[in-house]
Amino acid sequence: MEFYYDSLQFNDHRYYLIASNAGLCFVGSPDAPLSEVNEFFSTDKLPSDPTKLALIKKQLLEFLNGIRQSFDLPLDPQFGTALQQKVWHTLATIPYGETITYQELAQRINRPTAIRAVASAVGRNPWMMVVPCHRVIRTDHTMGGYRGGLPLKTALLKMENTLTTLAF
């Protein structure tokens, strides 16, 4: 399978995007190097191809500018255990502007005692923002972790509650 990359620039931050012919494979953390993708899956050859990622970039920019609330993109999961896949699928059902706790997420997938495993799966979500792992918080309503960094998670949640553009 061939993979392609491009980057998205928004508010002085760069996000690397990886896609295959089947769909989006990965959204990178803000300002992380392209090599961040190697933490998720390896690629032998990764050519840059902006045309393959044009729709992905368009929808992400619309989301970051407060225009889009959901994504209509094919996703191409390149890895993940059955539990991770189930968590990621369930993350995609969390509505814009709402949050749930890691415990609630574990209950939704019928694994109420697997909170740590669920939290780990959330942290391994390769489609940051597109599959909204930023909408998951701790039971005490603190932020918890976020691959993109807590400033971005905070900004995304604030944006979704106020329907303004992202200030990050």
UniProtKB/TrEMBL annotation:
Methylated-DNA-[protein]-cysteine S-methyltransferase DNA binding domain: residues covered: 83-161
MF-aspect GO terms: methylated-DNA-[protein]-cysteine S-methyltransferase activity
GO BP of this protein: DNA repair; methylation
Cross-referenced Pfam families: DNA_binding_1
Catalytic activity: a 6-O-methyl-2'-deoxyguanosine in DNA + L-cysteinyl-[protein] = S-methyl-L-cysteinyl-[protein] + a 2'-deoxyguanosine in DNA; a 4-O-methyl-thymidine in DNA + L-cysteinyl-[protein] = a thymidine in DNA + S-methyl-L-cysteinyl-[protein]
EC numbers on record: 2.1.1.63
Presence of the UniProt keyword Hydrolase in the record: no
Entry keywords, A to Z: DNA damage, DNA repair, Methyltransferase, Transferase
Record bears the keyword Nuclease: no
Family stated for the protein in its record: Belongs to the MGMT family.
NCBIfam families: ogt (TIGR00589)
PANTHER family, alphabetized: METHYLATED-DNA--PROTEIN-CYSTEINE METHYLTRANSFERASE, METHYLATED-DNA--PROTEIN-CYSTEINE METHYLTRANSFERASE, INDUCIBLE
Protein name: methylated-DNA--[protein]-cysteine S-methyltransferase
Organism: Paucilactobacillus hokkaidonensis JCM 18461
Native organism taxonomy: Bacteria, Bacillati, Bacillota, Bacilli, Lactobacillales
